Each structure stands twice: as structure tokens, then as C-alpha cells.
Amino acid sequence: MSALHAGDPASFAADVLDEGPAELEHVPGVASHRPTKTCAGGALIRDSAGRVLFVVPNYKAVLDIPGGMTEDDESPKAATLREIHEELGLTVPLGRLLVVDWTPRNGVWRDCHQFVFDGGVVDGATARDPELEGVLYLTLAEAEPSIYPSLHRRLTLALSALESGSTRYAEFGREV
User: Which cofactors is this protein said to need (predicted)?
Assistant: First the structure.
């Protein structure tokens, strides 16, 4: 799997070549004045009882889903697959995109596009990353006091998208 693309690396490389030479600035310096937006990918993984898999990070006070920030030239899906492997030691075939959510700037963190993919059903996952204290399988109601409200809204949409078959677009966890 390429760091650039979570699909077929050969076809991705061909697509890059087909795009032509790198675009040059018509007006020098214009690109450096554009805002930088962050991007993250995460997986909605459930157990056979339907509970959601949450990771317990040791670097923040709230639970999260497996996944994380993209690296330079890395797609959200590739970042999600990489993070699942780093955090849980799992190689899972990610399913379809469930939610795209925009979150606004929060303190030191820039605004971000958050992608949630279907991570399927995995029973008995364990933490493998030293950044994690462990994992928990919880219902959204059980997790609500321990996750950000925006993540609760995003996961509610993801579960709904899983059932309906329709990807959802949200802003700060609210479908628009």
C-alpha cells in the first residue's frame, strides 16, 4: 500500500503521470498565502454485539476512534489503515466512506476535514501503541460522557450512514 494512496499504487502512479507536469505558480508566492487545512481519517469498528471500538489515548483526556491525522501526501483512507495497524496491530479491509465532517479551529488545532470509514466488525481488539492506555467497546450512550460532543454527533451519523447506505456530510458533527 502506498503512503500516497490506499488503493492500487500502480494505477495511482499512472494517474499522477497522466496529470502532467507539476503546476507552477502563475503569480509567484500566491500558493504560500493559502490556508493550511488538516485532515484526519478514522474507522467505525464494532464488535459482534454492535458496540463501537474506542481507543484510550494517554495524550488527551477523551476517548477517540482508531485513526489519526494524515501525513504529507497521504490520503485519509491510507492514514486510517496506517493508524489502525499502528494502534491496534490490525490489518482490516476498510469499507465505504460513512461521514465527511468539517471541524472548526479549536485552540492550537487548525480546522480539519474528518473522514470516517466503515471498519467492520472486530472482536477482542487490543492496544498495541504506547500512545494508548487501552481500548473499550461501548455503546454511544455509554461513551457520551467520555467523548467530545462533536465526535458523538459524527458517530451517530456514521451509524446512520451504515444502516442507510448513504454517506453523510457534516459540519462539526451536524449534517448539513
Answer: Mg(2+)
